[in-house]
Specification:
There is one protein chain. By secondary structure, this protein is mainly alpha-helical. The protein has a single domain, classed as Growth Hormone, Chain: A (Up-down Bundle). Helices cover 84% and strands 0% of the residues. Helix 4 crosses helix 5, helix 5 packs antiparallel against helix 9 and helix 16 runs antiparallel to helix 17. The protein starts with a helix and ends with a helix. It is a multi-pass membrane protein. InterPro entries: MFS (IPR011701), MFS_dom (IPR020846), MFS_Efflux_Transporters (IPR050189), MFS_trans_sf (IPR036259).
Amino acid sequence: MRAWIIWATGLLAYIVAVLDRTTLGVSGLNAADRFAATPSVLSTFVVLQVVVYAAAQVPAGVLLDRFGSRTLIVAGALLMATGQFALALTTSLPLAIGARAVVGLGDAVTFISVLRLVPHWFAPRRVPLLTQLTGICGQLGQVLSAIPFLALLTGTGWARAYLSVAALGALGAVLALIVVKDTPSGRVVAAETMSIRATLASVKTVWLRPGTRLGFFTHMGTQFSVTVFALMWGVPYLTVAQGLSTAVTGGLLTASVVAAISSGILIGLVTGRYPHRRSWIVLGIIVSNALAWSVVLALPDRAPLWLLLVLILVISVGGPGSMVGFDFARTFNPSATLGTAQGMVNMGGFIASLLVMQAMGLILDAAGGFSFESFRVAWTVQYVIWVFAIVGIVITRRKALKSMRAAPQTDEERSLLEFFENR
């Protein structure tokens, strides 16, 4: 029971982090009015947050290996609460952009810190499923932004809505400080303090492991489409380009979370039982995302509601699909550098997301703003990322298998190697 309580407390911090991450996505039109921002400026507003998030992943992983989950979860929650508090009160665009950067920094350390708790507190056979549950249950933060936060924003205004989110973040920090423990012994076993050169050498070693890069490309190809949709362009696309009401849009975003939770449980069970099939599952998710978007974008006019629902359900599977990347990191990296490896994996989807968000903002600006045709063109930039990720997965999984056969380093690698040799 103690393990579940600690995990649930960390999960709460991650739910709040996802809420913080997605608040601007549902308040994008309000932000445009409040800060007099054009679509490209508005996309930069969010892209900076994602840039900070992605750039901080490797340092966050190194700090996680050194100081443990509890310290980083508390620090991340306080940073996000501070950023949201500043955003609630300012009407200055530069200050607001800076506040979102602070939110991105706090967000950067939270997820991998919560994920690191799982192998310390649960049996190995439960780790794949708990990893999935961490990711998909965290997406309840998107529900909080799509329904209660949006209702607060509409009913009470910008300041009160963002102050409420800041208060929730502060509560998460207090609970994590009181409840969370790094390991059953109550502390993380820190590695020896290393020089900057030694730290960089360790980071390079982790990246050069093909399994780490396999996780990176897995995360990149599966996660970015639903992230761009939820974080930035989904609400304007559905309301302006597709002509849906705010209520229907909120319902579709909620359906996205339900789909992520349902598919995540299934993916966790299947990948835990058939780890040798993980890369094929990932490739199937990427192809299904591309096909669903192709059908919608091929239409000359607005899509029917049922087709938009199908699109959102399909791309939502990409969220839990990206969690398989962390399974690859755990399989092919020793525990001493797992935080660094997980940080590298987590960079993949967010680098892709920020590139797509910024490119879409530029295209929308060039096309004259929010319209059906401008969004139709803008969404096509996704195909570049899908092709790049698929090529990366195919190449690195071959190298990972070769490396595993040459010198397995973890128990999971040895188990997989035994399976392949007995086929």
